[in-house]
User: Which sequence fits this backbone?
């Protein structure tokens, strides 16, 4: 008996890239893969799933196959794709216990040899000696792996992913996150059966009620968003606070968002200086250590990287250079990282 794979958005974690491509990771797969990851050595294997191009480009990871170091990769791949479930190899995964969430030379070779079709994915799982596991997703597009540097980290835990993850969890791939609750409620209102003909109620008379429901939902969502983004403070305290860095208009829009054991560095990918740039460099300094990162035009358009801080206080300097040699530079100071 073969397993039939449908799609229920509640059972997937959705990671959407800046260019609109999305990767859907099955929560059942996360649970089962977590149980099979070696606590001491490396675990690697094939991701199995489906790919689609319409109505949007997406890759869905439904299952996996662990491969032993001595096992023939191509034989295992062929067997998995021909077991009657209708899944194909859509990428690979590997675990590690330390290091940065970035692809190494071996990963790039794996991508280029076995998974160089657009939309194939790589899953890097970080399993620390102590604490929770994290993961990062990469994908192959136009002959190269993206993101070029660090992947966006997310907790590799099915229970936590089921509750959503800030920035990248979407309840339904067919609907934008901010519209899904609204459309769902509207559908529920309009799909409610009409009263019996003897009551004399027509659909046209329900439209005002539906409109009121929509208005109430919009007002409720606006209130919830306001509460999430603005902590309650006294007027004096609010007035004394400087404007957040993300609210200031700067040439590159450079900002840093702190996360547990990781920091997301973002910039404005549609800023004029970014759009005209042909290359960029970023230096991250702290505690006597400086990391340098280079960007080509594609990496600059992605608008972010993930970085594992090596100190609590960091100085970040970002420079982009246009074809005519004109440079635009921006720096920020990040203090008190956890």
Assistant:
């Amino acid at each position: 008996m073969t397993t039939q794979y449908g799609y229920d958005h509640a059972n997937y974690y959705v990671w959407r890239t800046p260019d609109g491509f999305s990767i859907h990771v099955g929560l059942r797969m996360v649970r089962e893969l977590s149980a099979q990851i070696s606590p001491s050595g490396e675990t690697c294997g094939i991701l199995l799933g489906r790919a689609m191009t319409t109505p949007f480009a997406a890759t869905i990871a439904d299952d996996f196959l662990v491969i032993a170091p001595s096992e023939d990769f191509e034989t295992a791949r062929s067997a998995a794709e021909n077991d009657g479930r209708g899944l194909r190899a859509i990428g690979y995964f590997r675990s590690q216990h330390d290091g940065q969430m970035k692809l190494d030379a071996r990963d790039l070779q794996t991508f280029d040899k076995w998974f160089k079709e657009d939309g194939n994915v790589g899953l890097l799982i970080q399993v620390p000696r102590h604490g929770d596991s994290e993961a990062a997703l990469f994908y192959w597009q136009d002959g190269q792996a993206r993101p070029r540097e660090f992947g966006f980290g997310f907790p590799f835990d099915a229970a936590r992913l089921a509750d959503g993850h800030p920035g990248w969890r979407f309840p339904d791939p067919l609907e934008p996150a901010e519209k899904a609750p609204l459309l769902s409620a509207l559908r529920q209102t309009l799909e409610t059966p009409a009263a019996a003909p003897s009551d004399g109620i027509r659909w046209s008379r329900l439209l005002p009620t539906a409109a009121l429901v929509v208005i109430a939902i919009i007002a409720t969502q606006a209130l919830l968003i306001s509460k999430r983004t603005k902590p309650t403070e006294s007027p004096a305290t609010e007035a004394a606070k400087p404007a957040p860095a993300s609210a200031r208009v700067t040439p590159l829009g450079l900002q840093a968002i702190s996360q547990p054991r990781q920091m997301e560095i973002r910039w404005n990918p549609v800023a004029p200086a970014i759009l005209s740039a042909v290359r960029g460099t970023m230096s991250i300094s702290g505690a006597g250590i400086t990391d340098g990162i280079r960007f080509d035009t594609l990496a600059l358009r992605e608008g972010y990287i993930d970085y594992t801080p090596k100190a609590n206080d960091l100085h970040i300097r970002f420079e982009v250079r246009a074809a005519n040699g004109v440079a635009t530079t921006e720096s920020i100071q990040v203090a008190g990282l956890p």
Notes: The chain has two domains: 9-162, 248-334.
